[in-house]
Amino acid sequence: MTAAAGHAHGPYTAYDLEELPEEGRRHELADGWLHELPGDLWHDNAAEQLRTILKEAARQATADVHVAGAPQEVATSAGIRRPDAFVVDRDVARLALERRARTYYGPDLLLVAEIVTPRTASERTDRVRKVAEYAATGIPHYWIVDLEPRPSVTVLELDGRPDGAAYRARRRARAGEDVRLELPYPIAFDPARLSEME
């Protein structure tokens, strides 16, 4: 937890999150508490590579989408999340740009991806908390990306159950295998690309 200006003990609001100085740190807001996101060169490089892969695939498919990531935000029932990568329809992105908003709403997302930072508090958040949260928000696809011991991508797909939305694992692709999906547009790549440095 991090103290926000004017509120030493919380609970915090989206306004407190907005007022935090960046200073090389990133935060999310969940259930009224600010959580610092871990970040290192390895994680940030993988996030950039993933966004590039998603953009290249969108161009090849002539998909009318926009690929984004932090510092752009996603509003969920718990608060404000800053995914490493996400995809929205281009019209949704245009509207956000016109409104000068950097926050998207969960139901607008086609795909969200989080890169796990092992042995941190955010690892459990990415693997457990966000699985339930993103499903409840209605995001159809959630990718959990692991970089250790070798890059892999776990592809989760929304499964609308009568008792509520939940994800089901569609597949897991490891370095040396191709992730091949048709949704939200055709995407094919080897997870090993996520560890390449440019």
Provide key terms for this protein:
4 helices, about 200 residues, globular, about 35% strand, Nuclease_put_TT1808, alpha+beta, 5-stranded mixed sheet, about 25% helix, 6-stranded mixed sheet, tt1808, chain A
What's this model, at a glance?
With 198 residues, the protein is an alpha+beta fold. Helices cover 26% and strands 34% of the residues. The chain has a six-stranded mixed β-sheet. A five-stranded mixed β-sheet has the order 2-1-5-4-7. It has a two-stranded antiparallel ribbon with strand order 12-13.
What does this structure look like?
This is Uma2 family endonuclease. The chain contains four helices and 13 strands. It has helices spanning 14-19, 41-60, 90-98, 121-137, and strands spanning 26-30, 33-37, 65-68, 73-75, 79-81, 85-89, 103-105, 109-115, 141-146, 152-161, 164-174, 179-181, 187-189. The chain has a six-stranded mixed beta sheet with strand order 3-6-8-9-10-11. Strand 10 (152-161) and strand 11 form a beta hairpin. The protein is globular and about 45 Å long.
